[in-house]
Amino acid sequence: MPKKVKIHIDKVSKVYQTEDGRELSVLRELSLDILEDEFVCIIGPSGCGKTTLLSIIAGLQPATSGRILVDGDIVSGPGRDRGVVFQEDAIFLWRKVIHNVEYGLQLRKVPKTERRKIVQEYLKLVGLEDFANFFPKELSGGMKKKVALATVYANDPTILLMDEPFGSLDYPTKCRLQLELLKLWKTKTKTTVFITHDVEEAIFLSDRIVVLQNGKVETVYENLLPRPRADELRVQTEFNKIKGDLRGYLE
Questions:
Q1: Residues in the chain with pLDDT < 50?
Q2: H or E stretch including 162?
Q3: Within a domain: residue 60?
Q4: 74-130 tens-digit pLDDT
Q5: What residues contact 140, with CB distance under 8 A and at least 6 apart?
Q6: How far lies 110's CA from each of 53, 105, 154, 155, in Å?
């Protein structure tokens, strides 16, 4: 049975007004369907509209024209069905790890016993169960990203939106977190939209890769590399062939 469409992006345009009165068109009647439980990576050069599109899906800003539907309902603002992981660490520096991860559950007034059970589950899934009582300043950059992931997952959205979350990390840490993310995604599958400028990262993570150019979809690549994926995949001939093909769109 074919998967249902989870996110329907229908001719979305976004135009900004500059301070000197000019119009800056970032998205141009962009249309795309993302399927339930699919892992889609969006790549493209700086300024092509990747982050703007993610922000509109999240409901953090409106489209100038067009519409986005999630499960058939028009997106008109943020919602608990969509969890966002930003490039910058969106965690509270004054709260311990356990209190960061339970924050959304507290807002929803989930009873303490239940929310602690949920938090412990996700801390274990991301390998931070021994760091529950640490403050963010005591963690590495990679561990802070794990806290952000656990925080979003604990709130149980059906869609995970990620805006270059590993972009600031060194290569070995980035590769480890990609593996951790895929393990978490396999265990607790979410429809995932992942913004990146890293072609290798997009290939390693995705089911499909969407290439944006000048605010439009340039091409959609079906990534048929088998799952589960391991680091050895990065040096295989087919992997590098895909990398070369995609880089051709970005030059």
A1: none
A2: strand 159-163
A3: yes
A4: 999 999 999 999 887 778 899 999 999 999 899 889 999 999 999 999 999 999 999
A5: 173
A6: 32, 5, 11, 10
Domain identity same for 115 and 72: no
165 close to 133: Cβ distance less than 8 angstroms: no
CA distance 34 to 120: 31
DSSP character string of 87-147: SS--S-TTS-HHHHHTHHHHHTT--HHHHHHHHHHHHHHTT-GGGTT--GGGS-HHHHHHH
Per-residue pLDDT at 134: 94
Q: Where are the alpha helices (DSSP H) in 155-206?
A: 171-187, 199-205
b/e code 184-211 from CB counts within 10 Å (16+ = b): bbeeeebbbbbbbbbbbbbbbbbbbbbb
Domain boundary among 137, 156, 175: 156
Q: Are 70 and 7 in contact (CB under 8 A)?
A: yes
How do strand 191-195 and strand 159-163 relate by DSSP bridges? parallel
Query: In the beta sheet, which residues pair with residue 84?
Result: 161
Are the C-beta atoms of 12 and 46 separated by less than 8 Å? no
Which domain, by its residues, includes 18? 5-81+158-250
Give the domain-ending residue among 139, 156, 173: 156
Match 């800003």 to its residue by tokens: 61
Residue with tokens 């009582």: 133
> What are the pLDDT digits (tens) for 77-86?
999 999 999 8
Structural Rg of the chain based on CA atoms: 18
Say what the pLDDT of residue 251 is. Answer: 67
Helical spans, DSSP H, in 4-111: 50-58, 97-101, 103-107
Parallel/antiparallel/unpaired status of strands 23-35 and 216-222: unpaired
